[in-house]
């Protein structure tokens, strides 16, 4: 993506994108609560903090900039979203946005919540085992 495309995406209002994540999940019999759990795991927001962000109408750039504690295991998220490998995205903000997209995509594909949130930890554990 070029900078102009990135800037457009960064300007999307989180409160407008959030219902799309929920719709994607619910079409596959997943829940809003699971979407919230993923967002909170990734960003460090509490559920109340997440709702505050939605009410404020912040754009994605602000939403991620104000994230209390972006999950350090997020760098272990791997895979393709929108035809691009998330681990190869150079822009840090775009990478965070795509990490969230990837996790919601995994939820919608029916992957167990424990595996979605712990897959990063599992990858880390496997890497440590290989080093021994």
Contiguous helical run count = 7
Estimate nothing, just give the exact number of structural domains: 1
Low-confidence stretches: 121-132
**Biggest sheet descriptor:** 2 strands, antiparallel
Structural key phrases:
single chain, mainly alpha, 2 strands, two-stranded antiparallel sheet, 65% helix, 132 residues, globular, disordered C terminus, Helicase, Ruva Protein, domain 3
Give a topology summary.
Layout (H helix, E strand, L loop, with lengths): L2 H8 L3 H14 L4 H12 L3 H10 L3 H6 L14 E2 L2 E2 L6 H17 L4 H19 L1
Antiparallel strand pairs: 1-2
Structure in words:
This protein is mostly helical and 132 residues long. The protein has 7 helices and 2 strands, in the order αααααββαα. A two-stranded antiparallel sheet has the order 1-2. Strand 1 (80-81) and strand 2 form a beta hairpin.
Quick summary:
The chain has 132 residues and is mainly alpha-helical. It has helices at residues 3-10, 14-27, 32-43, 47-56, 60-65, 92-108, 113-131; strands at residues 80-81, 84-85.
């Amino acid at each position: 993506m070029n900078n102009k495309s990135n800037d457009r995406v960064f300007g999307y209002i989180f409160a407008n994108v959030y219902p799309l994540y929920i719709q994607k999940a619910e079409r596959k019999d997943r829940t809003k609560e699971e979407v919230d759990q993923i967002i909170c795991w990734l960003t460090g927001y509490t559920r109340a903090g997440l709702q505050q962000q939605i009410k404020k109408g912040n754009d994605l750039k602000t939403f991620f900039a104000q994230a209390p504690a972006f999950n350090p295991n997020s760098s272990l998220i791997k895979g393709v979203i929108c035809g691009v490998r998330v681990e190869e995205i150079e822009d840090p903000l775009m990478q965070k946005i795509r990490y969230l997209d990837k996790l919601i995509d995994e939820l919608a594909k029916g992957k167990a919540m424990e595996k979605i949130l712990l897959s990063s930890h599992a990858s880390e554990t496997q890497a440590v085992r290989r080093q021994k």
